[in-house]
């Protein structure tokens, strides 16, 4: 399908384009299989470039005609674009091309989803719409005319007058082509208004297919809160007369920040209490905020090239996490983010796909929308803020917006504003952008003559892409606690820059207990031999909510590891007793208590064993976790009814943090009860549930208890007409299935009439759940590996981007025993040998096979 030997693109080869674009006018005549796109583009020589090669990117386009300054020309055409001899003076380029949105299953460029036209251009999709210098450093003002049969016609910017049956849009803000968007469909709007703090009236619309009107209110409220928050916290106002959001059912990612016209995966915006869980509401709020915040961090200031992706993504993730912390509970958000970082970014950074936050080469940029670029990228910004302090951070951001508005920037530009504001030299800090891998931090301590000393040693193991690692700047937040549980040193930021470095704390009456890396102040693996007693002490006394949770996490992990490695061992009862005391504390936020009940994932346990030189056995891990859960439920049995009563919500449903926290704790309690009551309590909750959070948590309890047949059938009956809810139905059956049935059940579900595998949400519902079910995915007979490989091969022919993203399921393969490794290798080699495999998947399996 694509080139057999894909090219590698390097950061060091960056060159500006030979021409600047002064303006772009596009006319779309929409048709499912023969859309005509006419472009009129004003080019002028770029004084900053030396190379005047005039090459316009273009893929899968049929060129109808082409002219320069009104004179027809015959360009040189290739699979990737068009070349012409262009004047060394300003000129007008015109082209007409034909494209076929209906047959575009890759969901990149202009495509159709449930009868509506929509676009996805990031990163390099605009070249599937027309010939253009499709690179983020070429910014231009766009004027768009849309003609077509469907009533709603949207593009970026503000609407202009247009004849009947047409729409015209003008976007006054110069932008790269990846922020272009067009939507046309039979849509209805949930409309609202927002007045910016300087008095600009903004029309807000959330466009959905008829029938989904009832799922818009929450997203709209989240949008207005985001707009206000960005004014209050970052001083950033919205800059157009209208802001449109469109919900689309077929979408590769969560959402896209196109200027003034955000396009969302419907799963990332549509919500109602009956159909969405609390987790869905929280995620939707965060994604709405994320895309809105891109208006300044991404759109007004964009990236010079795709290597700088973290410039917009790391910063925008950081901003959306600040927003969520302000809207909800900051400690709960922080713990959730760290769970996520360890589950997704650490394995990436410690395996064959490891790459720096700012990669230096790629074959397919779509493969670099990763947890490293996004989540580690956000951690890097959090560290920077911790190091310079809140006031300097705010000043640096103001300078960034002032200095770089309207530009396409680099990480160097970003760091320079911090250097200019603080006078600091950030050259060592910059290693966070160029060095891959997760640093490991060891701690030694001494106590002599009233002086307590902490000695840290940092080391980053080599990664496949880089052998040598240099010391990084590590902000280490530390507190010290006296033996009576009182803090003797409140949180203090230590700044580590050397490979080994000591910090002294004089005048201590007694040896303190340290609380290290409070708030997870740096994305590292902390390796410190700590006794169980000390961890229980921290669980009881640490004033830092993150480290209190972390102490419990470590206790859970070590108890589980003991059970895995020695099948005669039971769970650590003295820890469970201490934990129960904390869980029963009514003064503690229920959401936080629910997090204390959350166990390390089985994949995390496998990694921990691997790091201790033990080959993880997924079956043993599974049984140990099961045994632990059964034992815990039994041990706490008598206290569960009182806890359950505490989590009852009597007020009408609201997705706010307070109610959601109660429901989260309630779900954890119900899961424990279902371990010994045969599903009685869960069945009652299921029968009376009036919201999806309760309904789904009861359903998962019934699946785990093996008594869900009736409920699953009833659920399907109730929700068969709701795609988003049916994604849950597909997913939970696999995610909670016992390993001995999960791959077979997944294969069965692919035969279900509702398994529309070309829809990324549905494909991920089944296969994402299978991958997440650790023991099922790694079942010894390799059934899941083979099933996933079959389907990735099939999907790749239609949608390379989503297929490639799912290849990361194999990234931890080298942890496991040689039989499993051989089975995974065979599956990956079978994928690699597929005829016509996309560049996306080719790059992924090549890196994975290493
Ligand atoms: N830029 C989008 C975001 O982070 C993600 C995205 C990337 C969406 C590529 C589609 C395609 O908000
Ligand atoms: Zn983003």
TrEMBL record:
Q: Which EC class does it fall in?
A: hydrolase
| One Gene Ontology MF term | alanyl aminopeptidase activity
Q: Does the keyword Protease apply?
A: yes
List each copy of the Peptidase M1 alanyl aminopeptidase C-terminal domain by range.
533-849
Q: Which reaction does it catalyse?
A: Release of an N-terminal amino acid, Xaa-|-Yaa- from a peptide, amide or arylamide. Xaa is preferably Ala, but may be most amino acids including Pro (slow action). When a terminal hydrophobic residue is followed by a prolyl residue, the two may be released as an intact Xaa-Pro dipeptide
Q: Which domain of life is it from?
A: Bacteria
Q: Where does the Peptidase M1 membrane alanine aminopeptidase domain start and stop, copy by copy?
A: 218-432
Under the heading CDD domains, the entry gives: M1_APN
| InterPro entries on file | Aminopeptidase_N-like_N (IPR045357), Aminopeptidase_N-like_N_sf (IPR042097), PepN_Ig-like_sf (IPR038438), Peptidase_M1 (IPR001930), Peptidase_M1_dom (IPR014782), Peptidase_M1_pepN (IPR012779), Peptidase_M1_pepN_C (IPR024601), Peptidase_M1_pepN_C_sf (IPR037144)
Where does the Aminopeptidase N-like N-terminal domain lie?
84-179
| Residues annotated as domain Peptidase M1 alanyl aminopeptidase Ig-like fold | 437-528
In short, the EC number is 3.4.11.2
The Swiss-Prot or TrEMBL record lists the needed cofactor(s) as: Zn(2+)
An example Pfam family from this entry, by short name, is DUF3458_C
Name the keywords, alphabetized: Aminopeptidase, Hydrolase, Metal-binding, Metalloprotease, Protease, Zinc
Q: Which PANTHER family match?
A: PUROMYCIN-SENSITIVE AMINOPEPTIDASE
The similarity comment for this entry is: Belongs to the peptidase M1 family.
Which NCBIfam families does the UniProt record give? pepN_proteo
Q: What is this protein's record name?
A: Aminopeptidase N
From the broadest rank down, the organism's phylogenetic lineage runs: Bacteria, Pseudomonadati, Pseudomonadota, Alphaproteobacteria, Rhodobacterales
């Amino acid at each position: 399908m694509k080139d057999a030997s894909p090219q590698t693109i390097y950061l060091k080869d960056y060159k500006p384009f030979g021409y600047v674009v002064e303006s772009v006018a596009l006319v779309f005549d929409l048709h499912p299989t023969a859309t005509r796109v006419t472009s009129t583009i004003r080019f002028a020589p770029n004084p900053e470039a030396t190379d005047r090669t005039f090459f316009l990117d273009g893929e899968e386009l049929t060129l109808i005609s082409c002219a320069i300054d009104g004179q027809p020309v015959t360009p040189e055409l290739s699979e990737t674009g068009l070349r012409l001899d262009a004047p060394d003076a300003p000129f007008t380029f015109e082209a007409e091309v034909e494209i076929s949105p209906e047959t575009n299953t890759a969901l990149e460029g202009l495509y159709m989803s449930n009868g509506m036209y929509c676009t996805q251009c990031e990163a390099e999709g605009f070249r599937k719409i027309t010939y253009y210098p499709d690179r983020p450093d070429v910014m231009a003002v766009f004027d768009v005319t849309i003609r077509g049969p469907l009533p709603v016609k949207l593009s970026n910017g503000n609407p202009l007058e247009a004849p009947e049956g047409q729409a015209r849009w003008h976007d006054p803000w110069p932008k790269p082509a990846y922020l272009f968007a067009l939507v046309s469909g039979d849509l209805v709007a949930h409309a609202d208004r927002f007045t910016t703090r300087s008095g600009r009236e903004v029309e807000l619309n959330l466009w959905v297919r008829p029938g989904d009107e009832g799922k818009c209110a929450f997203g709209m409220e989240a949008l207005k809160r985001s707009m206000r928050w960005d004014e209050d916290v970052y001083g950033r106002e919205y800059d157009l007369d209208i802001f449109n959001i469109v919900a689309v059912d077929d979408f590769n990612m969560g959402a896209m920040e196109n200027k003034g016209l955000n396009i969302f995966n419907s799963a990332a915006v549509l919500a109602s209490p009956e159909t969405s869980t609390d987790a869905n509401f929280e995620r939707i709020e965060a994604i709405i905020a994320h895309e809105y915040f891109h208006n300044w961090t991404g759109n007004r200031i964009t990236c010079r090239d795709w290597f700088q992706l973290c410039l917009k993504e790391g910063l925008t993730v950081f901003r959306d996490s600040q927003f969520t912390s302000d809207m909800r509970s900051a400690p709960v958000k922080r713990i959730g983010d760290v769970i996520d970082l360890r589950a997704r970014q650490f394995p990436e950074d410690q395996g064959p796909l490891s790459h720096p936050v700012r990669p230096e080469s790629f074959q397919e940029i779509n493969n670099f929308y990763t947890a490293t670029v996004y989540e580690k990228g956000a951690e890097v910004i959090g560290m920077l803020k911790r190091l310079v302090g809140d006031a300097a951070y705010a000043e640096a951001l103001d300078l960034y917006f002032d200095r770089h508005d309207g530009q396409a920037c680099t990480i160097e530009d970003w760091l320079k504003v911090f250097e200019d504001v603080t006078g600091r030299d950030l050259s060592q800090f910059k290693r966070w952008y160029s060095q891959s891998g997760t640093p490991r931090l060891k701690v030694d301590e001494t106590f002599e003559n009233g002086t307590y000393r902490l000695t840290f040693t940092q080391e980053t193991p080599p990664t496949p892409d880089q052998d040598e690692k240099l010391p990084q700047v590590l902000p280490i937040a530390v507190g010290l606690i006296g033996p009576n549980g009182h803090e003797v040193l409140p949180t203090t930021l230590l700044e580590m820059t050397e490979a080994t470095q000591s910090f002294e704390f004089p005048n201590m009456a007694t040896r303190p207990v340290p609380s290290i890396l409070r708030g997870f102040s740096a994305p590292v693996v902390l390796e410190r031999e700590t006794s169980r007693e000390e961890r229980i002490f921290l669980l009881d006394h640490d004033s830092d909510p993150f480290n209190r949770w972390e102490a419990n996490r470590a206790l859970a992990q070590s108890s589980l590891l003991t059970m895995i490695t020695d099948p005669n061992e039971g769970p650590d009862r003295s820890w469970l007793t201490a934990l129960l005391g904390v869980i029963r504390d009514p003064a503690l936020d229920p959401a936080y208590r629910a997090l204390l009940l959350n166990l390390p994932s089985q994949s995390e346990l496998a990694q921990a064993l691997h790091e201790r030189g033990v080959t993880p056995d997924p079956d043993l891990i599974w049984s140990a976790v099961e045994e632990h859960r059964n034992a815990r439920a039994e041990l706490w049995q008598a206290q569960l009814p009182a806890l359950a009563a505490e989590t009852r919500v009597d007020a009408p449903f609201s997705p706010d943090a307070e109610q959601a926290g109660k429901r989260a704790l309630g779900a954890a309690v119900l899961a424990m009860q279902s371990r010994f009551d045969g599903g009685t309590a869960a069945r009652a909750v299921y029968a009376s549930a009036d919201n999806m959070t309760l309904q789904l948590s009861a359903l998962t309890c019934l699946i785990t208890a093996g008594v869900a047949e009736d409920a699953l059938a009833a659920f399907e009956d109730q929700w068969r007409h709701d795609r988003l809810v049916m994604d849950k139905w597909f997913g939970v059956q696999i995610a909670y299935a016992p390993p001995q049935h999960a791959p077979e059940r997944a294969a069965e579900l692919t035969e279900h009439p509702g398994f529309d595998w070309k829809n990324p949400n549905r494909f991920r519902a089944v296969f994402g759940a299978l991958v997440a079910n650790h023991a099922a995915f790694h079942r010894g007979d390799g059934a899941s590996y083979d099933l996933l490989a079959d389907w990735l091969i099939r999907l790749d022919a239609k949608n390379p981007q989503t297929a490639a993203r799912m290849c990361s399921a194999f990234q931890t393969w080298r942890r496991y025993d040689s039989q499993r490794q051989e089975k995974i290798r065979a599956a990956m080699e079978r994928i690699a040998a597929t005829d016509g495999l996309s560049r996306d998947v080719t790059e992924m399996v090549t890196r994975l096979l290493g």
